[in-house]
């Protein structure tokens, strides 16, 4: 079924650093009613940030500029561009360029490419959806490549996919090992999508997806300590979770970390090295870094 979104009004602007971007995003989220607008921030490779705000109804442009000006200054506020995003069948449009992604023994594909999966590869069917992670992003592919390397020599028994998104990493691990995997995300939509995708891939009985921030849920203690953790998130959350993650690792556990730009990798490596982990592999794929670390 086609999913057509109506034309919406959008505000876009660039900002110089992460701290300023967070201030702007926090203020906009606080000032705009939930459901009135959706705010997104994306880091560029040069270290700057692009921010976009999609509005459900026609916004008061002066008020939006005033809000941004409070958090980031008048110069940034004046550079805001307002435009209209045309109505579009987003699922159809996303599938047009969604070709199968090869990542070692794994192939991530859409429903329309089921027949293109070779018999000697493990196909994971993931449709374009609201949750992050169709396999086409360099971070997801990097995690799958490192996962393939790990599974050539080890058979971890207790596995966690932290920040699961569409569930692609949890599904890949569960199907390759034929063992249960715990998957978590802070976003309820992602948890729902991950559960649906696990069932679609015949792994619904193996993947348990829960909604939880960080390591706060009791399920982490019950299912740990973990022999393998996959965390495809972002640099800052990964650094912040180094201590609680280390507390949930089994001896000699392996950790796959991604969502990092290459210049951010050393900071993340240092955070985990301080908690007793050593770097085993640093993979750069599609302009993104993925790390394989091990508890010493």
What are the key terms here?
296 residues; alpha/beta; Alpha-Beta Plaits; Rossmann fold; 2 domains; seven-stranded mixed beta sheet; four-stranded antiparallel beta sheet; 11 helices; 31% strand; globular; disordered N terminus
Description:
The chain is of the alpha/beta class and 296 residues long. The chain has two domains: 4-90, Alpha-Beta Plaits, CATH 3.30.70; 97-295, Rossmann fold (3-Layer(aba) Sandwich), CATH 3.40.50. Helices cover 35% and strands 31% of the residues. The chain contains eleven helices and 16 strands. The strands form four sheets. Strands 12-11-10-13-14-16-15 form a seven-stranded mixed sheet, with helices on both faces. Helix 1 packs across helix 2 (61-72) and helix 5 (138-153) packs parallel to helix 6 (168-177). 34% of the residues are buried.
